[in-house]
């Protein structure tokens, strides 16, 4: 919780978030060209999770003074927890699954594995400092499951190598189970911090 370290973490996550949105650039353009505009919010999964965590760090450094801002911060922290844990693990599993199916290893895979594992680890480490409660966690869970539903009914899930994409039904099932596991982990975090 040292302020200097929180700023370093904030800057690292902010840069990663910007890079993530750039990474999704082609899919964002394709979505805008072929789908209703409102779906764009649900396309860049990992960068949005990283954005939630980045904003959560600001709430840690600058605690909200008003009740409304405090509740907003709690919702963002709950979203950060569930989505960062989920997509941090999801991306690593998809990359390794691709390798196991013969997809070539490239340098960016290792960068993505490191950055996504960091997303999952950092949110687990900082959960005890977050102030979200049950209502915020329920909201985050509904948001995450809605995202899954839209990803796999509208076809806006993150781009996958062809070798993995042929197993899209299994990917969908794994994604939903991972969402539920991330929400459950949020409940466990609430119990451990005595906020439930």
UniProtKB/TrEMBL annotation:
<dbReference type="Pfam" id="PF07187">
    <property type="entry name" value="DUF1405"/>
</dbReference>
<keyword id="KW-0472">Membrane</keyword>
<feature type="transmembrane region" description="Helical">
    <location>
        <begin position="132"/>
        <end position="150"/>
    </location>
</feature>
<keyword id="KW-0812">Transmembrane</keyword>
<feature type="transmembrane region" description="Helical">
    <location>
        <begin position="36"/>
        <end position="62"/>
    </location>
</feature>
<keyword id="KW-1133">Transmembrane helix</keyword>
<feature type="transmembrane region" description="Helical">
    <location>
        <begin position="105"/>
        <end position="125"/>
    </location>
</feature>
<feature type="transmembrane region" description="Helical">
    <location>
        <begin position="170"/>
        <end position="190"/>
    </location>
</feature>
<feature type="transmembrane region" description="Helical">
    <location>
        <begin position="74"/>
        <end position="99"/>
    </location>
</feature>
<protein>
    <submittedName>
        <fullName>DUF1405 domain-containing protein</fullName>
    </submittedName>
</protein>
<dbReference type="InterPro" id="IPR009845">
    <property type="entry name" value="DUF1405"/>
</dbReference>
């Amino acid at each position: 919780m040292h302020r200097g370290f929180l700023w370093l973490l904030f800057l690292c996550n902010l840069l990663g978030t910007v890079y993530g949105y750039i990474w999704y650039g082609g899919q964002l353009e394709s979505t805008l060209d072929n789908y209703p505009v409102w779906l764009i919010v649900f396309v860049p999964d990992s960068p949005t999770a990283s954005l939630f965590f980045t904003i959560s760090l600001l709430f840690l450094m600058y605690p909200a003074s008003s009740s409304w801002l405090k509740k907003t911060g709690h919702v963002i922290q709950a979203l950060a927890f569930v989505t960062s844990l989920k997509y941090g693990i999801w991306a690593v599993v998809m990359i390794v699954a691709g390798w196991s199916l013969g997809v070539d290893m490239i340098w960016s895979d290792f960068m993505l594995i490191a950055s996504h594992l960091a997303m999952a680890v950092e949110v687990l480490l900082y959960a005890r400092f977050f102030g979200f409660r049950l209502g915020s966690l329920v909201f985050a869970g509904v948001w995450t499951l809605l995202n899954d539903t839209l990803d796999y009914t509208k076809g806006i899930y993150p781009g996958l190598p062809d070798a993995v994409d042929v197993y899209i039904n299994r990917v969908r099932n794994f994604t939903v189970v991972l969402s539920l596991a991330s929400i459950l982990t949020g409940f466990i975090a609430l119990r451990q911090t005595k906020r439930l």
